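hi support,

uploading two proteins for the ticket. first:
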Amino acid sequence: MTRLMAVTLALLFAVSAAFADDKHHAGANAFTTGEVRKVDKEAKKITIKHGEIRNLDMPAMTMVFQVKDTALLEQVKVGDKIRFAADKVGGAYTVTKIEPVK
């Protein structure tokens, strides 16, 4: 194998690994917009009508999420427009961050 071919292959593998790593880790920081439909502090759940959640390969819909931290539920009320991050934690779809949209 020539040196040029070896360098080209090494760069190709590095770029491929970077893209794969970026897609995998996008979940922790990827925000989706939505509207709060229900807040259940006792059950530690929130119902959100949301847009596509790319890191979960999920289309737009309304669904119930668990929350990583119940303090997140103190930041919102029914009808609020939000930006949020969600991921699959322990097999459950879980909201990990919430920001109100003003």
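and the second one:
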Amino acid sequence: MEYALRLATLEDVPVLRELIARSAHGLGAADYTHAEIEAALQGAFGVDTALIRDGTYFVAETRTRDIVACGGWGRRRTLFGSDTRAERDESWLDPQSEPAKIRAFFVDPAHARYGIGRAILARCESDAIQAGFSSFELMATLPGLRLYEKCGYVAAPAIDYALPGGLTIRFVPMHKKLRLAP
């Protein structure tokens, strides 16, 4: 199957919300309970329109223009979460001393394992490098952990992030530093 990457637009937001829920339920079911996924969809997972407005969020489309994956990178301090997440910090990062944030990757389960996530990640890293960044960090879901490890990200100890309703969800902070030529 062929996929084309393009920048996401604000008009894509309703489709992205559906995609994110489908991805979280379909690909996260082996690692998270239904209740954890539903609670995470209230803020920990979701669309961050700041990424779209900054021009750093991508979608992958099929030939028929169906959006089947999304992901991006941020030059702001917020590490993860949707527009509704309370702990947001929209201040700008210094590319010379701080890592770019790899953010909000979701793939439709019917299109998983075709290299779409890897393609979006490569585009994000390339664009962030062009913007002056030489390192990256992210907050991986348990299903996403496998992709990021294959792409050279190093895991820190897992955390349990508090969700609505007294639930928690396990995330793994990860980082990657580029080897710069002498």
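thanks. also noticed: The mean pLDDT is 95.
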